[in-house]
Write a structure and sequence with these properties.
With 325 residues, the protein is an alpha+beta fold. The chain is 26% helix and 24% strand. α3 packs antiparallel against α5. The chain is globular. The structure holds flavin-adenine dinucleotide. Flavin-adenine dinucleotide (FAD) binds next to β3, α4, β9 and β13.
Length: 325
């Protein structure tokens, strides 16, 4: 696709047309847990269906790359930022609805830990694991997030999604998709960067709220003891196939990085956590370039030592070839 060149005059025109909704040159670092990276050329915070309708108009008028940001907890934005339209859902997109005794719908901007606690309080079981994943429901669906022996695909039943690609036949139509249509597998789905997940329905089991809340407390305590705080994106790399679960003897990505002697390794202000080797900490003043260079060093070192190429779990934005714009 040939994208619209977003020079200053064009940005001004777009912001004027969609006044109150779209802003130009908005720093993205505060919208990510790494807290690094440059600005979005265009940025819109969507709180309602009315806002969404304006976005359909914008993207059918101007060809712009889309980046949806949930809680930015699995996202590395380049230092030059994102030369397109960044969408961030809030307001009515963060609501919860109980649809039946065991089915609950979360707006995609709902925090995953809040979704876990709400489900537990309703005496529904199956989402306790999600208390440890600091993303949104939308980001969790796209990533098929998981932990503590479970993942989104175990209880997700369907989502509402809309395509923001004007060339797609479903452009601007909110479509309900069954979980089986999403090709959810280990930390992946078939959702595209122009797909906007609006809501997700989970089919849970009747449970015991006291028990679920106790499990939640244990998970939170485990996370505090075993994972670093600060500016990071959780696991940077996916585990090599078959590794990283309690039944596997293959080393996880973290174990490989540790065995390669990389704990504490640093590029600029990015450092492999000394608490968990699959975490990269971004110290104050860190650049996305430092994180990216450290990712590359880890990949090279693990490849040389174990002949295994670690694939990033973290999503990258804004690193594309400038020729595309
Ligand atoms: C301390 C820490 C611990 C973590 N632990 C875990 C863990 O145990 N298990 C795990 O799986 N992950 C973990 N993560 C990673 C991260 O929290 C998950 O991947 C989470 O699901 C990302 O959600 P998000 O809302 O932050 O998505 P973002 O980081 O904002 O985005 C991730 C991807 O989803 C897309 N996206 C986000 N929202 C939408 C939407 N509404 N519609 C369409 N696309 C969307 C983005 O474009 C991007 O491609 C951890 C991260 C941190 C910082």
């Amino acid at each position: 696709m040939k994208y619209t060149h977003l020079h200053d005059e064009k940005l001004e025109k777009i912001c004027e047309t969609y006044q109150g909704l779209v802003r130009a040159n908005v720093p993205l670092a505060p919208f990510t847990t790494f807290k690094v990276g440059g600005p979005a050329k265009l940025f819109a915070e969507l709180a309602s269906q009315a806002d969404l309708i304006q976005i359909y108009d914008l993207v059918s008028t101007y060809q712009v790359p889309i980046l949806v940001i949930g809680n930015g907890s699995n996202l590395l934005v380049s230092d030059t930022g994102f030369r397109g339209l960044v969408l961030h859902l809030t307001g009515s997109f963060a609501e919860a609805k109980v649809l039946s005794e065991t089915t609950i719908e979360f707006g995609s901007a709902m925090s995953l830990p809040v979704a876990a606690r709400k489900s537990a309080q309703l005496s529904l079981t199956g989402l306790e694991w999600a208390v440890g994943v600091p993303g949104t429901v939308g980001g969790a669906v796209v990533m098929n997030a998981g932990g503590h022996g479970s993942q989104v695909s175990n209880t997700l039943s369907a989502i509402d999604v809309v395509s923001l690609n004007p060339l797609c036949k479903n452009f601007g139509n909110v479509v309900a998709q069954d979980v089986t249509e999403l090709a959810l597998s280990y930390r992946s789905s078939n959702l595209e960067s122009s797909d906007l997940v609006l809501a997700a329905r989970f089919k849970l089991e009747p449970g015991d709220s006291t028990k679920s809340l106790e499990t939640i407390r244990e998970i939170v305590a485990w996370r505090r003891a075993n994972q670093p705080g600060g500016q990071n994106c959780g696991s940077v790399f996916t585990n090599p196939q078959g590794a990283g679960n309690e039944f596997s003897e293959s080393p996880s990505a973290g174990e490989l990085i540790e065995r390669a002697g990389l704990k504490g390794a640093r590029v600029g202000r990015a450092q492999i956590s000394s608490k968990h080797a699959n975490f990269i900490q971004a110290d104050p003043g860190c650049l996305a370039g430092d994180v990216l260079a450290l990712i590359g060093e880890v990949q090279d070192a693990v490849k040389e030592r174990f002949s295994i190429w670690l694939e990033p779990e973290v999503k990258m934005a804004g690193f594309e070839d400038p020729k595309d714009y």
